User: Fold IclR family transcriptional regulator from Caballeronia temeraria.
Amino acid sequence: MDVEDNDADRYRAPALDKGLDILELLSEQKSGLTRAEITKMLGRNASEMYRMLERLVARQYVVRSPEGDRYSLSLKLYALAHRHPPMNRLIAEALPVMQRFADAAEQSVHLAVYDRGNLLVIAQVDGPGTWGISVRLGSRVGLIDTGSGRVMLAFQTDEQREHMLAEHTRVKGEIALDRTVLDADYRQIRELGYSKKDSQQTFGVTDVTYPLLGPSGQAIAALTCPYMRRIDEYVAPSIDDVTDLLKDAAASLSMMHD
Assistant:
């Protein structure tokens, strides 16, 4: 048994684990679950699930349906996440900068942070035009096969990158990529300072991504423009113009400046 296993045994908190298991299970359900369904899916006994659900309802993390037979997540976790000061500050600072970028570039832009093995989109602004592509706020996007993910991984210490890759789980439709190809990608992105690559999710889109750097030079977030080129007579900013605008936006939000 290694040190991590010893630590896992030493710090066991079965009741906490059960409560968290329920919250994680309910987070994946659109219409809630009955107590019997929760008990069966988690492989627990009915009485412990009853006690746990009663506490989660009392603390307002879980709500009962009006009929009283189904349980679903309340908005409490969502509210807590958005009260979290660093995230809240990042979103508050980023949105005006993103809005100015979207207006000038005539493209949409989104901001993603690392979250449990993939990326979470925490802010999104549409371009001003009739047409555009946007990534839904709150979406989880792949760590491996997106511009946001590659940039996030490129600007980490080797140790942190390994931890993130070990935590990674594939999202729906994700393309598996060879590790040697990924390592070469990270080196190139670090040298260039950004990523510009055809989207691996949507045909006709070029993802341009810059990191938001923390004080130590590691990426704390990734700012991405899914660039769509106009083919009618309207002359919109070119991809080179958009890349320069995105670079300036990311630099203004980074904590590490040249």
